[in-house]
Amino acid sequence: MRIKILLLIYFLSLSSYSQQFRDASSLADLNQYYNNNGVAIADYDQDGDLDIFLVGYRVQPNNQKSRLLENTNNGNFIDVTDLTGINQNLEHEIALPSGFNFGDRLAASWGDFNNDGYPDLFLGNSVQSELYKNNGDGSFSNITESAGFQVYCEKCYITGALWLDYDLDGLLDIFLSDYNPESPNKLYRNLGNETFELVDLSSVIENANSFSAINMYINDDEYPDIYIANDFDQNNMLLINQQGGGFINEAESYQVLDPRDGMGLATCDYDNDLDIDFFVTNIKENSFFVNELSAGSQFLNLSDDVNIYDTNWAWGAIFTDFNHDRFEDLYIANGFFNDEENEYFENIFTLEGRKFQHADFTDEPITATNSRSVNSFDYDNDGDLDLIVSNTNSSLDFYENKAIDTYFTNEVSGAWLKIHLEGTTSNRDGLGAIITVEDTNNYEQTRLYNGSGFQHQSLQSLHFGLNNAALVNSISVTWPNTGVEVYTNINVNSTVKIVEGQGIQVINNNTANKIPGCTDVNSCNYEPEATVSNDTCEYLTSGEISGSQLVNPLETYSYTYSGGTSFSNYLWDVVNGTVVQGQGTNTIEVRWGIDVEGSLEIVGSNDDCSSAAVEYNVTMELPSGDDSNYSIARLWNEVLLEAIRNDLARPTVHARNLFHTSAAMYDAWSIVNNKGNPYLIGNSVHDYDVPYDSFSNELSDSENSRASISYAAYRILRHRFFNSPGWPLIKSRTDTLMTLLNYDIDNYDVENNNEDPIDLGNYIAENYISYGIQDGSMEEADYENQYYQPVNEPLVPIFSGNSMINPNRWQPLSLNVFIDQSGNILEESTPEFLGAEWGNVNPFGLNENDMTTFTRDGNIYNVYHDPGAPPELDGNQETDDYYINSFAMVSIWGSHLSKDDGIIWDISPNSIGNVSEESYPENLSDYDSFYDYYNGGDSGMGYSSNPITNQSYETQEVLRGDYTRVLAEFWADGPDSETPPGHWFVLLNGISDNPLLEKKFQGSGDVLSNLEWDIKSYFIMGGVMHDAAITAWGIKGWYDYVRPISAIRYMADLGQSTDETLSNYNSNGLPLIDGYIEIVNEGDQLAGESNENIGKIKLYTWRGHDYIQNPFEDQAGVGWILADEWWPYQRPTFVTPNFAGYVSGHSTYSRAAAESLTLFTGSPYFPGGMGEYIARQNEFLVFEEGPSQDIKLQWASYRDASDQCSLSRIWGGIHPYIDDMPGRFIGSVVGVESFNYGAAYFESSLSTIDLELHKLKLVSNPIYSHQSIEIINTNGNETFKLYNINGQQIKINTFYNQYRTSILHQDLNPGIYILKSKNINWKILVR
Hints:
4-stranded antiparallel sheet; 17 helices
């Protein structure tokens, strides 16, 4: 009992110091500095307050120079860079072998190398690093050359500089971490006369991608050792100091190799055991090495045990006792390709020992950023440590610690002590000293003073939190050169200065004199000099927001701001909703999401100032019964799509998830409404039997549908996404919807499934889950392949060329880090083929008669609708040419990916779409006439008028380079990464929401309710997408065909296949095409410094990621590049989907979906003859800036959208037309076939329909215009109707003779026609 009470007291004490920060970026005048790397702290002018050196990311664009920011001691900082003589406006871009670039200026490190009491500054840069000597009068001198450092180092890329006295001569030496493996890390020894000499480390240091280094004491001597963090899964290094006479790398013997993606380093004593531990930031797999040397053990990696293993893409990290509880907390800076939230952890007590726990960092909203360096320092000398974070694509973040909050609340949380060291025999800064503090509660803490972090080294007092201690019993300082000194009985809440060998003194805290006033820049009486708010701000008179406060999810509502001052601009912010239109005006329309609550906030402004923010809260609830415009099926479909966006980007898996969830919802609806026939429940599907009798109770159909559908969907989603990287968010969304429905998420009952809709929903989910475990998908093994093995070794795209074994087979890619299209960082850097055996999964409506079973190495590959082998490089001139020309066109279309090419296209349906059926090529020899080989696009004729309204379409003239880039991004996996099958569900929902749509199945009969329409359309679309995935991936797995990045680089290595008289001729090389594919000759900019590239092949195409440093501001553009360094228009951490190319999944999915929608809606056209998506200017593109204008993607027909999707994959660089066209043809067959199969379940008697489906068969297709349409296995009682693509019925006559029906017609024009029987549709192609 006593233990429990003590623990309770401890936790209550801990919670009272729960730390909060406030954003002080604006107050301190730091929010004006954008795009930075390192941030280093020191009192450069020795006036008693700490100043900042801020490293600019690069000079261009926007003059992002580095700056020295002087602390005014009034609570803000001023730029004194020019006054001090520091000129850091260097601009040296180098191409790193890694393919990455982190700016041209990187790190800043303060260190008093000449022991004069004034901090000097070393700046780590690309090519030209610099040493600035502090002259002691407020100015600096650049002494780089005279001090013995390289003024110009062509391959140097210094990401970190570490001052340390490695030989204990009392002078600071410096270790430079070089990220370029072609340039080694360097150690410079301080000679004592303001010069340095390079120490030879060649025998101990291996060239690596080194990010940072830190000094520690590992082997119990007084000489500092050096730990180095290396990127790209290279071993980190631990250099054990041989008493100043050299180093030995002993990382392995101390068990700290950590072969991951080492970036930032930080030391601490997290558990106060008086041993120094250290932390290594990596990509989603940090290491925390806890020192057990004193116990006779080694370092133990406990990052997972203490909850800091996975903190996303981590860079800088810092340990600081922010809340004064005696234990160091942790802050980590995150983000690279994606903006991410930084992470703050409090160090807490648990029964298993000390751990780190996510904590609330601030009451203010946290914005995702691309952060790098993080530092803590007491900027206002109030006794607590504040926090500064640099961001590479946004402004500096500065947070004031509220532990000592005398200016605002007069609250003080915990005692503290600051210790300033001054060496006499040791180096002046005391770097390398170890300080141990014991307070009156007999608690001890220790710190190693190295001042080092990612991209910075700082000089400042050491800080200790002391909780409720009344006095410090002792301070023990172990100086680097002279050993231990002990001082006793020091007051808390004070700053002391300890001079080596001379004693201790309490010094003035020099607390900042902040200037009170109005600090809100948007107010009407803003005082720029004020650094602390005194609540005197005045604002324009605020009005109020009016509009619905009780709203339904997915519905759109209007909100108006009225009263108060008349404003020229209105800025709205909406939480849990989306502004549909009206931003900038006083009235907006908001479409609410699926949540329990939401809010609006508005700030009005004119040219002078603004109003105070006005907030307006809304509560969400679901309407009762069938009153909602959005059915229960739609709500769960939206939750499922959001789950897919937060999961790994796996199109096969998510096609299956969409199908199974949709089918489960259909089964629930079918059973409780007694309509149609369930798919799985009560049936046998692929030998999986589900017994079921009937359902009956006294509840309404609406109540039964809502409950059974919800529990079925909820259980399936929780099962399928439980291991998703986005599971916490997915769980929150699914639970929220159940909360809105007032359902108990802990109800798992199934026994009463014939009467209780909840039990029925659980029973349905239970069986779909069980069915999925044995359906051939290998779900239990996380969908992994069981036997497929690639024949080619991985391609490493950051290196040029490609010497693959078989140029016809798929090749894995090996990347430093792989980020899928959903933004998830995968642990493996060489992703395996996704779904190589997916053809073996149980289909929906595919027919076994269309399946071919192949074997390779004794293993089965099932292939539906086998298109035959693609052309290969096999010595056959004809197929060789098809291969070469197809892949070459991918590079040529890459030349369209720049807004600067000046080409203007009308991208409205006036000019694109409406590809005639007869123009689709059936033979490879006809492909060149279908695609515009040089200009891009296809043979689409556009529309003379809207086929629905008969009105002309409005032209939309845009830059081709904007249009093509938007296409490549939009169709990649959907605008929000819901993968292609999910993307077509998004389009389906948009179609369903269109008020012009009549919800009639196949365009005839009664108008369906929203629920029935959604249930049936999801069931059909889900089945079609699932079958498309099985078909396309069955073909991919068997033919295992190469992707463009492999093929183009392979052919480039071989040479050119056009001119046999040249030495670089190879019949399998790239073709020479003037202006697109040429040879590098002498004098060419690509020839290389030693003409090493003469004779190579060059391409005029998209230039790739070397030309994109900041994706928010840069565009790669188009130009000449070496062909063996070609990249597709994809993210550099994704490059190409991790599965074979042939056939295109996008083409198959999209054409199948288009055919299905045509049949389901009864029209080939979008409602009103127009579907549309808007990509906003400079917002839509992900890895480069753009588009330069708003781009509206428009489609008249579903097929137009499908065709556009197919073309986008060529511009995106991941498919040649070899992959595209077979996918379109197969998709058109699967779409119709699977639609027919699914539609049969809507009838009253499934057995009769099944017989007819298997019996009736179309004899030949396509036919010529004079041929009759022949159907066999008929009985003479069938009825048939024929429609053209516009839905107009064609007059026919039928003639029956001995189980065969001939359908006679007047000569048909070439094109597509739909033949309908009672339960079957055939697509007829007439030539």
